[in-house]
Design goal:
Elements lengths: L1 H16 L2 H34 L5 H11 L4 H12 L14 H25 L5 H7 L4 H11 L1 H16 L3 H7 L9 H10 L3 H31 L1
Helix pairs in contact: 1-11, 2-5, 2-8, 3-5, 4-5, 4-9, 5-8, 5-9, 6-7, 8-11, 10-11
């Protein structure tokens, strides 16, 4: 119990004093995870809408792959991304291994199946005749997709929350493709692992508390947006 209070006091001290390194790590965590979330939405929302609306051979298998992807082990994703970005790998010429870009890419790969699955579920949950009514009114394909997304906006905002949570809380893949380099790729989760390994449990707890506070703040903003959209 004393260790928990020590961690809480250390978290308050780091926040109140405006520790520069902690601030940089926190902002880096937010930047990388926000980029990963945006990328996962760019991939997952269109794919989810496609799987929800189109009937084709192998659709159930594709949905099963998406659902399986929701539980992908981060260390496996990190290993595969690292192999792809290695100097001798197929994407080695990009020279982005052990960078924030590589971390955002790995996090996006982990979050994309979640976004895809939730989007497909949201669209499939709409009334089956809604799309036909929209098309009958003369809407283009893009307008149809936009109107369907508007109707499913509550679950789509929930997908954003889950994607961001999955990205910012990830540690295994981030360590493998980012390297936890001080001043470059060190984020909150990897720093918690580092400080725990060093036996600095108070600092690790403090950073964990800051991470939870950051996730809560972002989730709160998205929840307020979701509830506002619900009343619209």
């Amino acid at each position: 119990m004393d260790l928990l209070w020590d961690g809480l006091r250390e978290a308050v001290r780091l926040i109140v004093t405006g520790d520069r390194e902690v601030l940089e790590i926190t902002l880096r965590s937010l930047l990388v995870s926000a980029a990963a979330t945006a990328l996962s939405l760019t991939i997952g929302v269109p794919l989810g809408m496609l799987l929800a609306q189109r009937q084709f051979r192998g659709r159930s298998v594709a949905l099963a792959f998406v659902n399986t992807g929701m539980g992908m082990p981060p260390v496996v994703v990190g290993l595969l991304v690292a192999l792809m970005l290695w100097r001798s790998g197929p994407l080695g010429e990009l020279d982005i291994l052990y960078t924030k870009t590589a971390m955002a890419l790995a996090q996006a790969i982990l979050a994309a199946p979640v976004v895809t699955g939730l989007t497909a579920t949201a669209i499939q949950g709409l009334h089956p005749k809604l799309r036909l009514q929209i098309v009958a009114l003369g809407a283009s394909r893009l307008q149809t997709l936009a109107l369907l997304a508007r109707e499913a906006r509550l679950l789509l905002i929930a997908a954003v929350m889950v994607a961001f949570g999955a990205a910012i809380s990830e540690v295994g893949a981030s360590l493998q493709v980012g390297g936890n380099i001080k001043g470059e790729t060190r984020v909150l989760t990897t720093t918690v692992v580092l400080e725990t390994g060093r036996g600095n449990f108070d600092v690790a707890l403090a950073l964990g508390i800051i991470l939870l506070a950051l996730v809560f703040a972002v989730t709160l903003l998205l929840t307020l947006l979701q509830q506002r959209a619900r009343r619209a």
